[in-house]
Amino acid sequence: MRINSFSFRVRYAETDQMGIVHHASYVPYLEMGRIEWLRAMDISYRAMEENGIILPVISLQINYKKSALYDDMLTVETRLKQLPMVRIEFEYKIYNDKRELLAEANTVLAFMDQSKNRPIKCPDFILDKLKA
């Protein structure tokens, strides 16, 4: 499945007193990677929400390999694991600018009807774009 890369610089607020990226800072990094992956597929998170479709995270797993530091340039590589049904699963690799693997992660999200708060199958307009 298609891989999308997204790079950014670590901000001071994301680090601890020693200049090491706090473990909780990786969760927003994954979200940024996922949103950029969707955007690269011409799928708008905002448009989905405006149409009553939400994607809550139902599972998150991160394996930390090496510390990221303040001012490091990081790259998040995001890959869709398989075509979605009711759930959509992403795999991630986070690298520093030396191309050292810092973390591997996995998230599972569920397509939900916001008004009914019930799971739904992946909308056809998303499946069509993923199959193209």
What report would you give on this structure?
This protein has a single domain (3-131), classed as Hotdog Thioesterase (Thiol Ester Dehydrase, Chain A, Roll). Helix content is 22%, strand content 36%. It contains three helices and eight strands. The strands form two sheets. It has a five-stranded antiparallel beta sheet with strand order 1-4-5-6-3, with helices on one face. The model has no long low-confidence stretch (mean pLDDT 96).
Give short descriptive properties of this protein.
five-stranded antiparallel β-sheet, 132 residues, Thiol Ester Dehydrase, Chain A, single chain, alpha+beta, HotDog_dom_sf
CATH fold field value: Thiol Ester Dehydrase, Chain A
Write out the CATH superfamily name. Answer: Hotdog Thioesterase
Q: What share of the residues does DSSP label as strand, in percent?
A: 35-45%
- Oligomeric category: single chain
Task: Please work out how many helical segments DSSP would assign.
Answer: 3
CATH class membership: Alpha Beta
Order of strands in the sheet with most strands: 1-4-5-6-3
Task: Please give the alpha-carbon distance between the first and last residues.
Answer: 12 Å
Number of separate strands: 8
Radius of gyration: 16 Å
Q: What is the H-and-E element order?
A: EHHEEEEEEEH
Low-confidence stretches: none
Any idea what the shape is? Answer: elongated
Class based on secondary structure composition and strand pairing: alpha+beta
Q: Which bin fits the share of residues in helices?
A: 10-25%
Question: How many domains, as an integer?
Answer: 1
The average pLDDT score comes to 96
